[in-house]
Amino acid sequence: MSETDWSPTSEAVAADQRAAYDAMRERCPVARDGTGAWTLFRHDDVVAAALDPATFSSRVSRHLNVPNGMDGEEHARFRALIDPYLAPGAVARLEPRFRGLAARLVASLPGDRSVEAVSELGARFAVRAQSAWLGWPAELEDTLLGWMDDNLEATRSRRLSRTAAVAERFDAIVRSLIEARRRAGADAPDDVTTQLLGERIDGRPLSDEEVISILRNWTAGDLGSIAACIGVVVHRLAVDAGLQERLRGSGRGGDELEAEIDEILRIDDPFVSNRRLATVDVEVGGRTVRAGERVVLNWTAANRDPRVMGDPDSRRPAENALRNVVYGIGVHECPGRGLATLELRVAIEELLAATSAIELAPGADPVREAPPRGGYRTVPVMLRPGPGRPTG
Ligand code: HEM
């Protein structure tokens, strides 16, 4: 086998990421690209690497990255600090507010022209829900939406200088929120952001850099992924009228909808991959990865591995749930899973309740997202108003 097995930035990959990853998983499941990074495509290799953080370190960047870029004890201490913010009880309390936000947003969408599901529904809902959770002012909405667009463009460009500049802009937004709270002192609002400022680690207060990094990872985890996931789910509903009808009929608050959403995202996982760094020489799928080499866990490919999922495109929520790695696995498994699941369920429930049908808009094809993101960039749909709940 040659030194370079594939190019993650090739036109063939961009044209159809899932088909390209499916093909790689069968042809060359542990593949080296031109930058020297290894990508793992098989479910068992991805899961084994994620479950072995001593061999596959998350310390892939020299920048502070709390807790994503940490290992071992340090990672465990920071996870213990952030996990309570995202625990089931804390998340459940947010449901009425999220539902109100989703219902109002859906009611404001027109019924007489096409609606773009990723930006008009997904991104807007993600920003509003997140601001409500963190206690950020509603006036930040357009700034955050603009930041999301630029962040996506920078990610697509794969240019480090661009992503660094966008990250700095985000840091400035958060820094001004932190400073306003410090100035307010005892009058600061009692919200998640203020609580985070009062946290201590190893007996000392968190540094501003640590607070900003935590908020950046919550925000980066939340905004873009929720918008992308809503795009994937709305697309699936629009092309599968039977599924749409069944879920519309099952009403609000159903576990059934959460299970279906997880399975729809397994089939078309927009959160494509995460990186690791090999700490020792290690054999994976018959190839030798050397200490210091970069490794990419391709969740999208793992989630479509027929060895564990059968036909990757057929929906079997109950059978596939335990092997679904949309939210990762192991010590870095997504702490925001409960929050993300609630946001997705509530947004889709309110969309289904307010409509009698969601259809792809005639003459405007959905556009797929470019690597390293997956899912759709745009999903134009027509929202047919439901009885008693006219949209527009
Ligand atoms: C649908 C939306 C989401 C998806 C698909 C998703 C997916 C993932 C995945 C696959 C990982 C594992 C990363 C790894 O192993 O390196 C992860 C980690 C993480 N996610 Fe999410 N996530 C989502 C939403 C959220 C939300 C809402 C938050 C917080 C508000 C969040 C915060 C994080 C953080 C902080 C980590 C790092 C955990 C650690 O390193 O211990 N995510 N996410």
Describe this structure in words.
This protein has 392 residues and is of the alpha+beta class. The protein has one domain: Cytochrome p450. The protein contains 17 helices and 14 strands. The strands form five sheets. The chain has a five-stranded mixed β-sheet, sandwiched between helices. A three-stranded antiparallel β-sheet has the order 4-14-11. Strands 5-6 form a two-stranded antiparallel sheet. β5 and β6 form a beta hairpin. It is globular, with a radius of gyration of 21 Å. The mean pLDDT is 94. It binds protoporphyrin IX containing FE. Protoporphyrin IX containing FE binds next to α11 and α17.
Main attributes of the structure:
binds protoporphyrin IX containing FE, 392 residues, alpha+beta, Cytochrome p450
How would the blueprint of this fold be written?
Elements: H1 11-15, H2 17-27, E1 30-32, E2 38-40, H3 43-50, E3 56-57, H4 72-82, H5 88-92, H6 95-108, E4 115-116, H7 117-134, H8 141-157, H9 160-184, H10 192-197, E5 200-201, E6 204-205, H11 208-239, H12 241-249, H13 255-267, E7 273-278, E8 282-284, E9 287-289, E10 294-298, H14 299-302, H15 306-309, H16 317-320, H17 337-354, E11 355-360, E12 367-368, E13 376-378, E14 380-385
Parallel strand pairs: 2-10
Antiparallel strand pairs: 1-2, 3-7, 4-14, 5-6, 7-10, 8-9, 11-14, 12-13
Helix pairs in contact: 6-7, 6-17, 7-8, 7-11, 8-9, 9-11, 11-17, 13-17
Brief overview:
The chain is an alpha+beta fold and 392 residues long.
